[in-house]
Amino acid sequence: MYVAVKGGERAIENAHRLLANARRGDQSISEVTLDQISEQLGLAVDRVMSEGSLYDRELAALAIKQARGDLIEAIFLVRAFRATLPRFGASEPVDTGAMRVQRRVSATFKDIPGGQILGPTFDYTHRLLDPSLGQGFVPEVPATAEASTAPTPRVTDILGRDGLIESSPRAEDGASVGDLTREPLNFPADRDLRLQNLARGDEGFLLAMGYSTQRGYGRNHPFVGEIRFGEVEVEFFAEDVGFAVPLGSIELTECQMVNQFKGSATEAPCFTRGYGLAFGQSERKTMSMALVDRALRARELGEEAVAPAQDEEFVMSHSDNVQATGFVEHLKLPHYVDFQSELGLLRKLRKEFAEANAPDAMKEAAE
């Protein structure tokens, strides 16, 4: 508990006013609206919703505006608001196989049932600044066609039919699902908790961990089986009526990573899975998540866990950006008493050191 110095409360109040003015900026320029943030900074909104664990585009846009574009601060704001909301239960598992696909690519098969759908992506753009975007740019109308009714089965399901990839794990009926937001994290953690942790984890941290597995720290040789982005329907089982009722649709990105597995004494060689799922269009996040998910399955698959990305406690204890930010940024708060104590101890030790290393003549004179 820190005691404010004289005048501290007024200084803090003025800091809040300064922040409000800095956030607004030049008032001769039109104020940015939540709709503008949601529509034109959509990927930032998607990240805040994912790592804030709350699907609400308007609230995520508000948090980004309030945080002056600092996405980690916006994530913190969303999580704080989320903690005030009542909980009525858990939704039914969403069926990503029935997703209304807006984008779908596979790096493993060129011709897949339902086809590759490039959708909105930076993948094929030139990384050159476009000055026209600063001049009231109006985009061309994109080509459209009738929505296809062809099925779009997951690539991993196609591999599964031939027994070339491990079976997709299924939860037992009635099995409880862990909730990191209600109970503290303990180790070892089951995969449901690990995936929750990764879904809420910082994208940059997961990207670095996933990258490390590709560079040899984890013996990971991945292929993107499929990335799909689109709308899925969310249902909630209503006990009053005895069946699941639709709540609405949300946008999700799913990544199924296909990884090598050499087999063991009891299992034949086959492909294994890494999985990522996030709100909105969050491809980098879900790919990183899938790489780390697979790395964290090392012991489950009988592999030696020697790399950072395979260390469950290391990854899960350091992936949360809100927690990490709080611990780092608290260093800005007053530590006057602690530092003066350290300073006094250091001076004492330096004095003792100087006396112990002084020439004999000086020691005798001192005596």
Helix/strand structural class: alpha+beta
The proportion of residues forming helix, as a percent range, comes to: 25-40%
Q: How big a fraction of the residues is strand?
A: 5-15%
- Which segments are poorly predicted (pLDDT under 50) over 5 or more consecutive residues? 1-5
What characteristic shape results from the CA principal axes? globular
**Rg from alpha-carbon coordinates:** 27 Å
Q: What is the H/E string?
A: HHHHHEHHHEEEHHHHH
User: Kindly, what is the distance between the CA atoms of the first and last residues, rounded to a whole number of angstroms?
Assistant: 45 Å
Spatial strand arrangement across the major sheet: 1-2-3-4
Beta-strand segment tally: 4
Main sheet attributes: strand count, strand direction, barrel closure: 4 strands, antiparallel
Q: Give me the number of helical elements.
A: 13
Average pLDDT over all residues:
89
Keywords: Lyase
Pfam families: PhnI
Protein name: Carbon-phosphorus lyase complex subunit PhnI
Organism: Bradyrhizobium barranii
Describe the 3D structure.
The chain is of the alpha+beta class and 367 residues long. The chain has 13 helices and 4 strands. A 4-stranded antiparallel sheet has the order 1-2-3-4. The radius of gyration is 27 Å and the shape is globular. GO terms for molecular function: lyase activity. This is Carbon-phosphorus lyase complex subunit PhnI. It comes from Bradyrhizobium barranii.
Concise account of the structure shown:
InterPro entries: PhnI. With 367 residues, the protein is an alpha+beta fold.
